[in-house]
Inverse folding.
């Protein structure tokens, strides 16, 4: 697979993960009346999950974004 396409796919998957997890947590906090819609707490929730997602995506990137040459040499 083309390295550029791999990178775009990798980032896209992490954006979907971030959006899904942050939205589910936001829904739970809104339903529990921890904060109101449009509040600082809601923004903080999405920013915190965004930061956590960036850290995780960066740590796992070496496993998924290897070049085709390094994968071929690993299999030999």
């Amino acid at each position: 697979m083309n390295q550029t396409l791999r990178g775009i796919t990798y980032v896209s998957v992490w954006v979907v993960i971030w959006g899904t997890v942050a939205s589910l947590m936001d829904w739970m906090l809104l339903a529990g009346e921890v904060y109101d819609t449009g509040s600082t707490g809601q923004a903080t929730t999405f920013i915190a999950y965004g930061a956590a997602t960036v850290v995780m995506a960066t740590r796992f990137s070496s496993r998924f974004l290897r070049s085709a040459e390094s994968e071929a040499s690993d299999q030999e």
